[in-house]
Amino acid sequence: MYERFLHLDSPFVFSRFFPVCGKAAGSKSRIIGGQDAQLGDWPWQVYFTTSYSSCGGSLISNEWVLTAAHCISRDDLNYTKVQLGVVQPDSVSNSTKVTRRLSEIICHPEYDSLTSENDICLLKLSAPVDFTPYIQPICLASENSTFHDGLASWVTGFGVTETRRIGLGLNPSSLQEVQVPIVGNNRCMCYYSETFMNALLFNPNLNTNNYLCAGFKEGGKDSCQGDSGGPLMVQLQNSSQWVQAGIVSFGEGCAVPMKPGVYTRVSQYQSWINDTVTGMEPGFVTFTSPGIDSDLSFTCTTTTSAPAPHTTTPSMTTDDSIFGSGETLSHFTHFVGIAVLALFLQFLVGGAWK
Hints:
Keywords: Disulfide bond, Glycoprotein, Hydrolase, Membrane, Protease, Serine protease, Signal, Transmembrane, Transmembrane helix. It is a single chain. The protein is mainly beta. It has a single domain, classed as Thrombin, subunit H. It contains four helices and 16 strands. The protein has helices at 185-191, 193-202, 270-276, 341-350; strands spanning 35-36, 45-49, 54-59, 64-67, 81-84, 98-100, 102-107, 121-125, 139-141, 152-157, 176-183, 211-214, 231-235, 242-250, 261-265, 284-285. The strands form two sheets. The chain has a seven-stranded antiparallel sheet, with no helix packed on it. Strands 10-11-12-15-14-13 form a six-stranded antiparallel beta barrel. A hairpin with a 4-residue loop joins β2 (45-49) and β3. The N and C termini lie far apart (41 Å). The model is unreliable at 1-17, 162-171, 304-313 and 315-354 (pLDDT under 50).
């Protein structure tokens, strides 16, 4: 198992991880649409709480967790509790659960809360964890990975499952999973044209390649408030291994038509992650989408006016929301700064994000 260079069981894969990454004990077939996840289905899923909020993350080695920068700050170091090996965080009878504190919080130095660019953070656990069927690291997409428009991906998290439940103060009951298609960057930028145009006002050097979008054009299935920091994953072709392509970051509403979820594109940060992580190395894998990307020939003709954007924060410990099953599995997001200029001015006054 301990090899410097490891060829995985797919023609699309090359990794340099010590134990094999991205392997889940759960073997049941997955259903398209929101549903409860079973123990062992997503063994890298992490749930953590600070003194005032909760977010998701993913285990990438025996002592490092990958999450979103908007979920946490250095001030949270002594107030953060991390749970691994759970699908029901509030359960007191979970024999597979492992709890840790943090010894380090290292967020990307160029994280921009106004545009959500570089919304990525690494958390070092207070002590390494032992791998079990319920606690495993996920593979990470390497810098040469490609994710074509329409590619099937999965999102998991402990966020709200219905938009009407946002802010009702209900605790998350169980880890949720939903399948959503990748939305090519040309199409995503078209759907979010007003949003990203205003983002460019704040940062003319904004690199849209640092984002990755996923969701249905008609809406209905998405990640939502409380899922921030969690993984967007793809499965290797002809393989049972999973690769993290994105980190839940932001969006406009939850499961809104033509407003897919926006994720931090993990493959853009391979060098930063490798330079930051100490000890056991994370497993980077090159994921190559088959065929030709239809997004390359996409032409933006959208004329439909977008719904008014609004912002949310990571779930508050006094305002968490449960996941129930159902078609409107909306687990997503922290709507931070990529908003229209009016919202930007509003938040300058009100200070609604971290």
